[in-house]
Structure formats: C-alpha cells, structure tokens
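Q:
Got a chain?
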Amino acid sequence: MKRVFLKLSGEALAGEKHTGFDEPTVTEVAKQVKEIVDRGIQVGIVIGGGNFWRGRTSETIDRTKADQIGMLATVMNCIYVSEIFRSVGMMTQILTPFECGTMTKPFSKDRANKYFEKGMVVFFAGGTGHPYFSTDTGIVLRAIEMEAEGIFLAKAIDGVYDSDPKTNPNAKKYDEVSIQEVIDKKLAVVDLTASIMCMENKMPMYIFGLNEKNSIVNAMSGNFSGTKVTV
C-alpha cells in the first residue's frame, strides 16, 4: 500500500491511567509509525477523544455541545501525539475542518496531498466538524476523500469477535469478515454510518490490538493477526 490511514483510540494512548496521556505508549506508537513512513508509505492519522471526554454519557449537556467538546479533545490529542512523532524524527502537520487559530491548518484535499508528498504524517483532527458524527465516520470520510488503500484500526481488543470476549469466554474471533456481515450482525467494528460508507466506497478495514508488540508494523507489513473487514 502507498497510503494508509491509522485510527488510534484516545483510551489506548492513556495506557493504564485511562485518562490523559501515557508517554511511553505514545512514543512506542511513534517509533512504529516512523518505521512505516521510512519505507515510503504515506500515513494519515485520526485519534479518538475518549481519554478526555465521553460526551454521550452526559445527560445534562446538549448533544451538539457535547460533540463539540469531543472534537476539541481530538485536536488536543493530535497536537500532543504530533509532537511525540516529531521527537522521534518525523515531520507532521495537523488539519482540522474548522479554524483553530495558528494551532492547525484548515483541511483541504490539495493541502493534505501536498503534505503527504513532502513525506509528512498528516493528522486529521476535529472529526467531520459536525455533531452527530463519530471519529469512526471521520476517518472513513477522510480515507475515502484522500484515496487511501485501507484503514487500520488500533484497538484495545485484538480483532472482531462474534460477541464480547470480556463477557463471553467462548467468543469467536474472525480472521476475515465482510462489511455486510458486520452490518447485519451489528458487530460494532465502527458505527453504522461509517460501516455503510466503507461498503459503498469499497474501503477495507484492518482491526488489531494496539498493545501487542510491534502491532502497527506487523499489521501494515502483511504479518497481520487481527481481523480484515472485506468489501
């Protein structure tokens, strides 16, 4: 693949603290992504905001405002992770669908392509810029727009199961599953909007566990032990 998108969960970046950042975890992610970039692969990154904010759990805040807080949480995550990436020798840029002063640049396809061509890792922060859309939908939208060849989802779990392995010790892990089956069985790989967009635009997804050794490098090098979602 020449261009891929990587989704990192905010919770995964928090490590065992479950909130904020765990710098050794983020540094390990940065080193693995650098290995991929050094091979000439262009990498776009989307990060969730769950290490700071879970807006849907609040019953007192208006949904639009809660989602806006979540968008800003993803911007904070991207600024932090971008700096860690730079500390290990990568060039980075952060794009958002709304103005953030001088902290980020406004998203456009032409601008993102220019950064990719310069060998930069491009962070797509702020989701879609609209409420009611998750970062799942955000990464699928940007990956389709930017003509990526696949989406890699680094999660706390090592793939897609037919039921929750935390509650069902007999849960079966899929090595490969179709996006249609994901939708029909409500397997919750990504939300329904993102799933349908992947199906309509033939965008494959690769789900793997972030905490496994060299998981990002392995996933993007063909030594993949997670679940491939086919289209």
